[in-house]
Structure formats: C-alpha cells, structure tokens
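User: Please predict the structure of the protein below. I'd like the answer in structure-token form so I can feed it into my own downstream comparison script.

Assistant: Understood. Taking the following sequence of 234 residues as input:
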Amino acid sequence: MRLSVAGCSALGGRETNQDSWFAGERLIAVADGVGGAPAGEVASRLAVESVAAAGPDTAPWEAAVRANAAVRAYAETDPATHGMATTLVIAALGPDGRMHGAFAGDSVMLVQTDQVELLSTPHTLGAELVAAGHLTAEEGARHPNRRALVRAVGMEAVLRPGHWTRPAVVGERYLLCSDGLTDALDEQALLAALTGLRAADPRQCVETLVRLACEAGARDNVTAVVGDVVAWPT
C-alpha cells in the first residue's frame, strides 16, 4: 500500500503564509506557525522539514519530538525567532502496514471511510478545561481564552504529542489541515464538502476545500493535505 497525495495552501485573510506542508507516498504533514509569536513561518517550515527528514519509518510521535528539538535549537541561535512555535499534525503509513499519527496544537486530522472520524483533539485551553471536567462544552465554547494553545512544537522543552494508530485500509482518505480551513467551514459544511468530493482525486479535493474556505471568508491561512490509501500498482 501507499498514499496518493496532494496538498494546497492559500493566504486566506493573511498577508503572509505561516503554514507549511509535506506530502509523500507514505507520509503527510501540516504545520501552522503560531500567530502572535515571532517567526511562525520559520517554525512551521523547520517542523515540516524535520518530519520529512525523519521519514515514514519513524513513528510520528517521535518525529514530532524531533521537530520540537529542531525548532527550539534554531531559536537558540537566532534571537529574532526566540519563542517561535507551530502546530503540527502527521500521518504516516508505517512499515507495519498500519497508519500512525501524531498531533500538537489545534490543526486538524481526520479520516474518511463511509463516515468521517476526527483523529486529533485540540490542545487549547478551552478543550483542556472541558476534558478535565472544569467546564461544560457550552462554557468552554464561551471561554475568553478558549483558543489559547497549551501545547505546540517549540512551546516547551519537552513535547507530549497526542498520537493514534489504526489499520491501513485501501480506500480510506486522510485529511490534514490548518485551523484556517475548519474555522471558515463549520462541521456541517466540511462534512458536506467531503461527502461531495469522495470520488474526487486528492488534488481536486484539496483545491476545492481551500477554495471553499476562502470563498467563505477565511481570516487565516488555509492549508489542506489529503492522503488516500491505495494499493501499489501491479
């Protein structure tokens, strides 16, 4: 098995693009430089380059830890980038024939089979307070600092990425995206778009999703990467 892949990115409502992405035959990744922190575009680029260098045979959670080290090491050499950070989502078709993923921050990762399943959880203050039982979902959605990141690549010396493992099944579609996409397209709109694009190839899928987000008034950079699990040609 391998992945049939494509990626697409747009400025959205920003003047510069702080998103980075990678798409290979067994590895896909998306990083979104943290806004409000310096050099977000540098952090996202370094993270994705580190993941790509680690390759698909490295467990994604280990690749995320390496990316964290790379971002922090760079920041120590360049004062202009001190404090930079980035979100990161990774999915890889491992040598064991299973799909493995890791995530840090609030970028999104999901899988589409006959339904759509979310594979990542946001590392935000609002989500953490709800998960810990301190707030209800409604209260978390209204919290003034609900979007504040509590975990991201480069934020702390030790990164604890979320992770998952599942069987790789031909026909499944993995979508990794920055929150610029999911902020512009609510859950219902995204599900409708994915359903309508189920038969489309990865290139058409990502280009359509990014276009729809921009048309919906995306205020942030919009990046989407798709990996379809396919069989090796015989």
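That's the full token string. The longest strand covers residues 2-10.
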